[in-house]
Amino acid sequence: MVDETVITEPADEPEEDGENEPVLGDETEEGTDEEPDVKTGELPADAI
Amino acid sequence: MVYRPVIEQECYQLDGSRFQGTNCGPSADSVYIRRATHGSRRPSSRGIRARTGDTSGGTNLRQLKDVNLSDFGIRGVLYQPIAWDDLMDHARADRGFLLDIWYGVLQHTSHDCFRRRFKDNHRIYVNHLTKYGNLRYFDPGADGRYAGCPKGWQSIKPAVLKEGAGKLDLSGLGTTAYRPLGIGKAYAMLVPKGT
């Protein structure tokens, strides 16, 4: 049985993602989270 | 001097991949990541999409924030929402950002990248404010694939993107309802300070 939810597009970076790499950014700098998440996209076929 | 990422072919949204029609978010994020890392990480839009694990519709900013931190070590600052004037203060300080807009404000202009057939929610990457007071931005559809289609970086008056940001539809894609975010507010994710 094939699970159709599995993404077949390959992730394009073969190198290991560095757990030991320094993180860019200040964890004390906070954003806001007052509104819901919103998805973008969904082009009609004739827009492509 | 602000870092200006090179837009590579694999950054564009319309790459023939399964999710090309819904991949403006990962596409814009591929340029955001180049900016935040000064080009040391250069993922493709399809590669970022795969990392989100999302196989349904478009993507939201939080998914990209999570991937950027877990896979690329980039701690973006997500605002849902931020006041437009505050966002422009960040632009004046050379902070780049992902920006969600309602594309209807660009649909019938020279900036349109979708054959004037699209006016729903869209994500772009804004790199900096130019010395002429325009915002320099990357539209995931700006690949020059037809006559009149923009290609690469574009400049635009902030007022246009302010309107687009304020008209972002919070009701969700594919719905008949329309609930705008509100003029003067924006959904955005800043690159880390100093990048």
Which keywords apply here?
A: 48 residues, little secondary structure, flat, B: six-stranded antiparallel beta sheet, 26% helix, 18% strand
Describe the structure.
Chain A is mostly loops and 48 residues long. Chain A has no helices and 1 strand. Chain A has one strand at residues 32-33. Chain A is flat, with a radius of gyration of 18 Å. Chain B has 195 residues and is α+β, with helices and mostly antiparallel strands. Helices cover 26% and strands 18% of the residues of chain B. Chain B has helices spanning 24-36, 45-52, 61-72, 84-92, 158-166; strands spanning 77-83, 97-102, 121-129, 135-138, 154-156, 185-190. In chain B, α1 packs across α2 (45-52) and α1 packs across α3 (61-72). The termini of chain B are close together. At the A-B interface, β1 of A face α1, α2, α3, β1 and β3 of B. β1 (32-33) of chain A pairs parallel with β1 of chain B, so a sheet runs across the interface.
Percent in strands of chain A: under 5%
How would you sum up the global shape of chain A? flat
The ordered H/E elements of chain A are E
Largest interface: A-B, 37 and 66 residues
Brief sketch in words of this structure:
Chain A is largely without helices or strands and 48 residues long. Helix content of chain A is 0%, strand content 4%. Chain B has 195 residues and is of the alpha+beta class.
Topology:
The complex is a heterodimer of chains A (48) and B (195).
Chain A: E1 32-33
Chain B: H1 24-36, H2 45-52, H3 61-72, E1 77-83, H4 84-92, E2 97-102, E3 121-129, E4 135-138, E5 154-156, H5 158-166, E6 185-190
Antiparallel strand pairs in B: 1-6, 2-3, 2-6, 3-4, 4-5
Helix pairs in contact in B: 1-2, 1-3
